[in-house]
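call fold(seq) -> tokens
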Amino acid sequence: MSQKKTFGQIISDLRQEKGLSREMVCGDERELSVRQLIRLEKGESKPTLTKIEYLADGLGVPLYQLMEDYTELPKRYIDLKYLLMRTGLFGPPTLIKQKEQYLSEIYENYYDELPEDEQVAVDVLQSWIDVFATGKTVFGNQMLEEYFHQVKQKTVYQINDLLILELYFYCLYLDNRLFDPNVYQHFLTCLMDQDAYLPIEQVFFLITVAVTCIAVGLNNGYCKGIGQLLKKVKKLMKQTQDYQHLPIIRLQECQILWLKKRKWAERWYKKIQLSLSEIGHEEVLQKFEEWREQFVNKGLRQS
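ret:
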């Protein structure tokens, strides 16, 4: 009896039968890099449904021909990942310990059996925690060096792309020297209509990434397109009834208003300050004070 082929062997054989190189299958590498395909073919990683669909299309075979190797993700893992993503990087420091516990459970019980895309997601989430806990962007370097170039080529994002973007924006938030206005404007523009491509249950995370993106722009004295993205975020919050970031959004509105009607903004800020202090966002308030000291006298750049 012949031994059953692995998923990696199947796609490798199909690719070679059709005379396709790995580079031809991967194209511009936005959806699948050559390195990721090599790992799949060698059996070093497991495919996600998205990758199976992409490969079926690229190899010109029906989806069911590649589906045998697909298994659903464990419910507990999905729940843990959701809990890690739900608060994003703008949360009180007390959340760090809880997030570390979630990650420990994932690494101990699920990580080794996860598809590569999910392992990447978990590793990015770990980088979040490391950067957030230490305030050092160096802990995000490895994931950004490996995956950021793929995200930068895209205009439509999947959830892993948004995870990478959240890590990238938070590193910019901590270190203004990393800020590139052209790259930033590209991402800001792309975020404006991403809700059209995401399942509704993932829009909460798009809101999280957009809020961090806005914070980065304001902290770097850059506000081209910020007002439009703020409006979009508020629209999405209303649509999903998800208001967890509302105090921060109010503060960001206050930053823009500060330059136009300072006395009104000062009164508004006092109310927002109390609200943010009560829910543990002292770091956000500190960043605002730094911003006010740096930009309020000379004004924000409009382009």
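The chain has two domains: 7-69, 75-295.
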